[in-house]
Amino acid sequence: MTRPPPTDDPGDAGLEVGEQKHAAAGLRAVTTALSMSAEQMGVRRTALTLARVNQKHGFDCPGCAWPDPEHRSVAEFCENGAKAVAEEATLRRVGRDFFAAHPISDLAGRSDFWLGQQGRLVEPMYRAPGASHYTPIGWDDAFELIADRLRALPGPDSASFYTSGRASNEAAFLYQLLVRRFGTNNLPDCSNMCHESSGAALSHSIGIGKGSVHLEDLYAADLILVVGQNPGTNHPRMLSALEKAKKNGAHIVTINPLDEAGLRRFRNPQSPIGMVAGTELADEFLQIRLSGDQALFAALAKLTVEAGAVDAAFLDQHCSEYEEYAAHLATLDWEDVLAATGLTRAEIEHLARRYRDSERVIVCWAMGLTQHRDAVATIQEITNLMLLRGNIGKPGAGLCPVRGHSNVQGDRTMGIWEKMPSSFTDALAAEFGFTPPAEHGLDAVDTIRAMRDGRVRAFVALGGNFVAATPDTDATTAAMGSLDLTVQVSTKLNRSHAICGTEALILPCLGRTERDQQASGPQVVSVEDSMGMVHVSRGRLDPPGAAVLSEVAVITRLAEALFPSTGSGQAAGRIDWPGLRGDYDRIRDHISRVVPGFEDFNARVHEPGGFALPHPPRDRREFPTATGKARFTVNPLATLAVPEGHLLLQTLRSHDQFNTTIYGLDDRYRGIKAGRRVVFVNPADLDALGFADGQYVDLVSVWSDGDRRAAGFRVVAYATARGCAAAYFPETNVLVPLDAVAHTSNTPASKSVVIRLEAAQP
Ligand code: SF4
């Protein structure tokens, strides 16, 4: 039943474009999930493995960070969760024979889909200077080599240590400990490219960079706004929560440049009736223009204040800077609002009434808000609106940034951040007896700049696919290729293995589905979901190979090689790396003394369902901000200028994709089959620009340092917002200039790239 990996790269040869769908999930989601799983795992392994996903004594889905409900269903996963698990638990293997058959230059020319379909890495591989191929290397030799090269660098800041959101809390805590013990804060992570803008905005406004709702709040809300998010593909179990909220009387409004199937109708596979009839989720759809959200929420706030519908007691007791904000709203120009949003005044006034008439309101958002120049201002504007009526710190209300990767929030909580507060590094110093570096480090975009400029010479990645996930692909590829050393700790093959340094290593690690056997027995790890719930994950499958190590084992063995003198209990820091590897409870003991909210960690993490981390604004309307209150912020409206004859492009995922992992070549809900180089454009814009559906074009982005080109895209006439287009990443990351970033958060502005279409060169 399993299917071998594709030998040839299918590309877009079989591309078909059909009708857009207006319902998500259903029987097709079940059959797709099972067939794609069986292709990778076979029938029996599929049944055994999927039965354990997101179960209280099972393992956490390596997909997104949507929380688990108290009562788990037998199949507590979605179609894309099944795909994520199948890709990890696949029976396909990539070993020395594969690398002998494929020179690095060949791998560099392959598609992300083809690379990812080859299977699990099963032994450490090394690329020597000048070598055309990766060849096997022993673990001890690998760690000695890496340690030797890192020690030989001009200084610790000449290296950068990346983390993808799949790393467990235990691995992330030890990784930041190793990096800070080495002497740098260069800890970029995938959050830099996704919810960094949310963290920056919320930290300023409410004093904590995390969402303020629990799953149960969604079920109790009167009004739920889903903004710049496509849960049908990116957080599919959220649809079940929205369906339950709807049944409890919630009104749901979706605000998006695209009319996504997942928010129209949900055919819940968990119920026969749901599977057939389905539930209409969104009561209203506002088709907003890309980067128009700040204007929309400022206008909603203006109308709320003008209607005198503010919660005066809440403002008085819990907020600061309201007067300055109200004065700013008085200057807001409706013409600017309508130009920026592309909406009508009537649509906005209707939503404002809906907001005023609701007691408990939740706003959910994702990359559609965070990857813009003014993303931080936009999220602060949402917070302003919610503060006006006290929609925080009460049941059924709050702010809900929905995280993309399963433990991206947990990694940040564990210290994976280039600018952790001194309270954290002081606690680390007290716990381990060394002085962590004080100077803030490099995030993802700054790491690429430093690589380009020769300031960073070595790059180590704990998971992820940095080259494909980052903007300005040509610049990033050149920068990565210029390094002395690259090290990738990975489960599967990806582009960042083909775009490597003079010396490069690939170190295979265990996935979440696999048993992690250490000296004290099988280990569990923990993760933190999008709503701040921490719970265990217990892998059960046999490792894909005897030479595959856990993330914790890789980190601790590298540390032993890098810091030979810090063996158990000796000088230069009290870090017992082998002891921590042997028993992860000891890692959690350290975490409980360093990271606030993890007291008694080992006991609480084993409670069924885990425990909630503290969130003062949610728990007791306390706001640990600079003013000690929730802060209104004034952000002048600056509409993004789009020259005549140009469009605003957003990069996005297909339905067969999770971040840079391409599960398949279909995008079922948008009518795309067997292809990825497509660009969705509004038919009226096509007429105005002189292009036609089915025509092939180049996409050319415009920036101060010149044009960037992505060639050979098939035009798909699609109901996007006027003036806005959409195409998949990583293929269009080449169009996003490195310097096109969000203010304050430095997050790539991948959702509003100014482009023009040019007829494709023959
Ligand atoms: S909603 Fe997210 S976490 Fe849940 S099963 Fe699907 S991909 Fe996994």
| Category by helix and strand content | alpha/beta
Q: What's the structural domain tally?
A: 3
The CATH topology label of the largest domain is Rossmann fold
Radius of gyration: 25 Å
Main beta sheet: 6 strands, mixed
How many strands in all? 33
Spatially, the strands of the biggest sheet line up as: 6-5-18-17-16-7
Which molecules are bound in this entry? iron/sulfur cluster
Intertermini distance: 41 Å
* Beta-strand residue percentage: 15-25%
Percent range of helical residues: 25-40%
Q: Count of helices?
A: 32
Outline, from the CA principal axes?
globular
Ranges with pLDDT <50 over ≥5 residues? Answer: 567-572
- Top CATH class of the largest domain: Alpha Beta
Provide an overview of this structure.
The chain has 762 residues and is α/β, with parallel strands linked by helices. The chain folds into three domains: 93-189 and 410-535 and 555-597, 3-Layer(aba) Sandwich (Rossmann fold), CATH 3.40.50; 196-402 and 623-631, Dimethylsulfoxide Reductase, domain 2 (3-Layer(aba) Sandwich), CATH 3.40.228.10; 647-759, Barwin-like endoglucanases. Helices cover 35% and strands 17% of the residues. The chain has 32 helices and 33 strands. The strands form ten sheets. It has a six-stranded mixed β-sheet, sandwiched between helices. Helix 1 (26-41) crosses helix 2 (43-50), helix 14 packs parallel to helix 20 and helix 23 (444-452) crosses helix 25 (473-481). It is globular and about 70 Å long. Bound molecules: iron/sulfur cluster (SF4). Iron/sulfur cluster binds at residues 61, 63-64, 66, 77-78, 80-81, 84, 235-237.
